[in-house]
Design goal:
Elements: H1 5-20, H2 27-36, H3 38-64, H4 69-96, H5 104-117, H6 119-138, H7 140-163
Helix pairs in contact: 1-2, 1-3, 1-7, 3-4, 4-5, 4-7, 6-7
Length: about 170
């Protein structure tokens, strides 16, 4: 059986969003969110797949070329774009659930605006999140079991924090 990754990821972020908003939730809310966000999840997942394939191929291809200063700069540019894409994804799904009508492209745009208006917060947030996840690798099973949930809850909390202007 193949687990439908993108819709389940959206269900996890939806569940975390409900908890952050102090709504009463139970495990059935998570399972009800899977069909509810099925197509939005696959749109988000397909877009991610396409963008990541393009970015990773560019990193790979420019890294194989002659290592001139220009080649290294171009490769660094693609690596930076890939890192930015991952940062953007941390905020995209929480923003998606703050919209009246979930739109992946609008959530991406709003994520870029949020990062642009809060660069120090965004970089600090992602560094702390990555450190927490890396520390979780030391306790492998803990990270495996809770890493996605930690990312979902932290991303939702960060978005709510910035939207409320704290």
């Amino acid at each position: 059986m193949i687990i439908p990754g993108p819709p389940v990821t959206l269900a996890l972020f939806y569940y975390a969003n409900q908890v952050i908003h102090e709504e009463t939730v139970n495990i059935s809310d998570f399972f009800k969110a899977i069909p509810r966000y099925w197509w939005v999840g696959w749109r988000w997942g397909f877009l991610n797949l396409v963008v990541l394939i393009i970015l990773i191929m560019n990193v790979h291809l420019t890294g194989q070329q002659n290592q001139t200063t220009t080649g290294i700069l171009i490769n660094s540019f693609y690596i930076t774009l890939t890192a930015f894409w991952f940062l953007l994804q941390t905020f995209t799904l929480p923003i998606l659930f703050e919209q009246e009508k979930p739109s992946v492209l609008q959530a991406l745009r709003n994520g870029v605006v949020m990062i642009g208006k809060n660069p120090f917060f965004s970089v600090s947030f992602i560094v702390l999140l990555l450190l927490t996840l890396v520390l979780g690798v030391l306790a492998f099973m803990l990270s495996l079991a809770l890493g996605g949930a930690l990312t979902a809850f932290a991303g939702n909390r960060a978005v709510i924090n910035r939207l409320e202007g704290r």
